[in-house]
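go over this chain:
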Amino acid sequence: MLSIRRCQSFARHIKLPFDFTSRSYRVQLGVTLPNPDAPIPPQITQPPSDNPHDVYWHFHRLGKENRNRRPTPQYRKKRLEEFVLGENSDVQDIALNTLKYMPYSKKLKKRLGRGRGANHGLHGNNGQKQRRSVNIPNLFEGGQTPIFKRIPKLRWRNAAFKKKYKPLNLEKLQYFIDTGRIDASSGTINLFTLRSAGLIGDVRWPGVKLLASGYDNFTAKIDIEVPRASMSAIKAVENAGGSIRCVYYNKRSLRMLLAPHRYEKHYTESMGMPPPKLFSYYMRKNIRGYLAVAGFDKNGINEHEKVPDHEEETERKRAEKVFMEHSVKQKKKGK
């Protein structure tokens, strides 16, 4: 008994058109080879019935070579026409016992977990994962301490909350003024003016910080309001005869300042007070904070609204001094 490969090579050697379509063909030496033009037996290409399970097991029994030989689209079309024109037209009355699926309209069931030979084998592992109902949580390492617990925690993880200001240099501001994109004599320059001129582009909270790059060539006399500014930039603006104020904008007031046309119906001039951590910053006079100009003290109280008789103690008395003053008062009362 020769294998199919040996018979094919033999037929190729003697120059015969030879084609084996299944493992059932076995040729011995001296036996006449089958006619290559003979039709393929119907039991090889067609299933016994249209039942999906019969179709599946039919091709499953033929082996790997014929299992891949699924019905061609031409055969499916022909079989569908036979069903519609023939079998379906013969039915007199529609009833529950006469209803059935159309050919190849139902997807074959995928039989899983039957090993590698079925091409659908699953759970090919040893140990815990060979069972189906295994639900291992993420980062589980079999009971040992996971890596995210073995490694110590990183410190200084609050960098994500750092306020990132968009830089604006005096050199670039001077260039836009010289080219006429910004009119320094039109009034106060704020973020809306800078964005309209295309100097800062898209601005997000907390805003812009004015830096002193190119302060030697800055000669424009301007009145500008920015959320923050460096000490060198403040000095350069004031040396040129201008003025600067550091103004806080919350997210809502910043959006209203940059796009006032979107808030025409509910526009407000209130910029919002800074949070407690930034309140002391905008009360400093050296950075030209707008709260220091308005007359707020370190407690956030306006100096113009204070009670006239209210005066804070400039220095704290020591206990010995308080005791001596008290004893002197008692002696005077005794006399």
Remarks:
- Residues 319-334 form the longest helix (16 residues).
- DSSP finds 13 helices and five strands in the chain.
- The CA atoms of residues 81 and 87 lie 10 Å apart.
- The first strand starts at residue 166 and ends at 169.
